[in-house]
Amino acid sequence: MANNGNPTQAYRPYSLKKILTNHTRAVSCVKFSKNGKLFASASLDKTLSVWSSETLTKLFSLTGHSDGISDLAWSSDSTYICSASDDRTLRIWDARSAECVKTLKGHSDIVFCVNFNPQSNLIVSGSFDDTVRIWDVKTGKSLHIIRAHAMPVTSVHFNRDGSLIVSGSHDGSCKIWDASTGALLKTLIDDKVPAVSFAKFSPNGKFILVATLDNTLLWNYSTGKFLKIYSGHKNRVYCIASTFSVTSEKYIVSGSEDHCIYLWDLQGKNLVQKLDGHTDTVVSVTCHPTENMIVSAALDNDRSVRVWVQH
Amino acid sequence: MNAPIIDPLQGDFPEVIEEYLEHGVMKCIAFNRRGTLLAAGCSDGSCVIWDFETRGIAKELRDKDCVAAITSVCWSKYGHRILVSSADKSLTLWDVVKEERIARTTLPQTPLQARLHPGSSTPSICLACPFSSAPMIVDMNTGNTTVLPVSISDTGNGVVPPSRNRFSDGSAPFSPTAACFNKYGDLVYVGNSKGELLIVDHKNVLICGIVPVPGNAVIKNMVFSRNGQYLLTNSNDRTIRIYENLLPLKGGLKFLEESNHAGDEQDGFEKLKAVGSRCLALFREFQDSITKVHWKAPCFSGDGEWVIGGSASKGEHKIYIWDKAGHLVKILEGPKEALIDLAWHPVHPIVVSVSLTGLVYIWAKDYTENWSAFAPDFKELEENEEYVEREDEFDLMPETEKVKESDVDEDEEIDIMGVEKDSAFSDSDMSQGEICFLPADPSPDVPEPQDKFVGSNSKQGDSNQSVSALSEEAGQSGRLTSHISTPLEVGVSAI
């Protein structure tokens, strides 16, 4: 199971702490709030659930979408949640009052991915209508509509100061956009195959973690070269979210279609642990901002949210 | 100066109007330190804070006691406070985040300009330049005013007793003066109607040095560059002058006092002039010798490399841009409305101008897509390069293709957490909790008449409760309004 790559410090493995079953259909996304007190899960059963990180119990559900939800994002002050749904809208929910505050309409097809900028006055969304939209949180208006790709947009993310947006798409390209003008700044990958299923900036905004439907790579976007490759998992069909774990040693964490969660050492690229237990593709993983806690979510055959901690 | 206009393709300055902001009739503007927020004073006495990224209104500061036009607006260093001066002779100090009025003072005369002390994060001292009398230091907490000396001639040694109000004895004639703090606020630079620049220690109310400005014309505006190294004066002889600040940025006052004692000139006017020459050195002069236009609201760019000035001629909205060497690089022309205020963004090549009609125009670079952005291995060339093909480039089976290895060191350590300090804000001690942005609360959707039902309240910690949602259109409930800090009237930013 464990392949200890770091000789100076023994790797402390993660183990399952709790299984949370609440959703009636596949869970598509889990995310911790920025202050770590809560985490939210989104599901194809059209609802979101908000959980306490401390007690690991469900606090409330958010209902209102008329179709399944693919992605969610927290605002920086952990007060608002934005969800992206197959009903072509995004909704902004107030996590204190558990109510829907705003509905963002404009996309003409399934909205697949969403993120707030660090200042949380803008929301970026990617859709199956091939566009990326930048929304004003206050008014709900689209500030920019970017004809970003030739196929569905699978992933959108702001960098650390909110000046750049990275987007990935089924058309195989990964592009970087200027957040204030909506203009294209750089194209990272341009091969038609394989599709880019996920892209996000590193915490300092200098690197981009990109997942494609055959591998996961870490790029340095200013030189346009890939720096590290992480492999061993299975990712051929779904848009599996991966993330950085920075609370102790630095790891890359990703779900996989073989029902496991993979952890690689960031620098050494070696696999340090494989967490199993889920009974379907693990499609989303999220790391607590300060503690060594990982939460994962799996698809229809499983429908659970699992919490893993490091001992 | 008939210097040739340099190629406008070079240089980081704006070229066209990108957008305009509309909200009532705006009169004066000020950016916060990072340029993320723009405060605008309006003719109805309110101050509007725009979120410069979304071009929407973030906050509105409205005081029922003040309904007269705002004459100037000024941010505190880290964005916690805003000072507005108004035509009803008042100065109001606001707490930005809480949207509360901290203090309000009324002066004997309408202040045309008011500046908060730049040295502290919660300043209560400010410098006010009234309509037709000497500038004064106002303590907003106590309401005390200290008039600063504007001339050495009436007292002979530069010291003015602090209690004397020069205007009440009727001896001071109409004498417009301009004044500003230096970068850390230990000195005030005053420009008087005789064309003299006075360096004043405002704590002790003492003139430390004098710099006579060539031309001896009334000085209308004075402003320092952001880095405190250059001082700009705008005089009635239609000339903008740039002075280099020879004093050290921190501890300028101390340096002055030491050099005062060190010098061996006689006391009096000559000594003050000698000290003055050690503080400021004339660097450049800008004027338009053809049209001889008066300048309005001149200021520096954020990095101090460019100087802009608006033409004060009525009926035209012209902004002149010079580089520091003195060359005119561009003249921006807007719609035929007089220009009343001007500001350069602290970081980006963006200029904001206010017209007499109350609109705020945003000037930015004319963006053109970079073609190399469309493909990963495109490289943009500055000029034609001669391409020398490899020996085997056109072979059917080129040798080099067989050896394909990445030239990247895959074992190199990557730092995903480290962040470099932003060089544009060199003296930022971030522990001050600078306000870079105001939290954006989404304004609730207007409820539609059909199928509106109120959801049951949920309590945190009660895990079995689930909220039945409001329908797609309805979004309002009594509980929500307590979170919204802006009035429901949504600010309009038109494109």
From TrEMBL, chain A:
GO (cellular component) term, any one: Set1C/COMPASS complex
Domain WDR5-like beta-propeller: 20-308
Presence of the UniProt keyword Signal in the record: no
GO molecular function: histone binding; methyltransferase activity
Biological process according to GO: methylation
Ranges of the WD repeats in the UniProt entry: 20-61, 62-103, 104-145, 146-187, 230-274
Keyword Protein biosynthesis in record: no
CDD domains: WD40
Keywords associated with the record: Methyltransferase, Repeat, Transferase, WD repeat
Protein name: COMPASS-like H3K4 histone methylase component WDR5B
Organism, scientific name: Olea europaea subsp. europaea
UniProtKB/TrEMBL annotation, chain B:
InterPro entries: RBBP5/Swd1, WD40/YVTN_repeat-like_dom_sf, WD40_repeat_CS, WD40_repeat_dom_sf, WD40_rpt
Bias (Polar residues): 455-469
Sequence ranges of the WD repeats: 26-60, 70-104
PROSITE patterns in the record: WD_REPEATS_1, WD_REPEATS_2
Region called Disordered, residue ranges: 433-495
Pfam families (alphabetical): WD40 (PF00400)
The keyword Chloroplast belongs to this UniProt entry's keyword annotation: no
Gene Ontology, cellular component aspect: Set1C/COMPASS complex
Compartments, as annotated in UniProt: Nucleus
Keyword annotations of the record: Nucleus, Repeat, WD repeat
Statement: the UniProt record of this protein carries the keyword Coiled coil: no
Name the UniProt record assigns to this protein: RBL isoform X1
Species annotation: Olea europaea subsp. europaea
Taxon lineage: Eukaryota, Viridiplantae, Streptophyta, Embryophyta, Tracheophyta
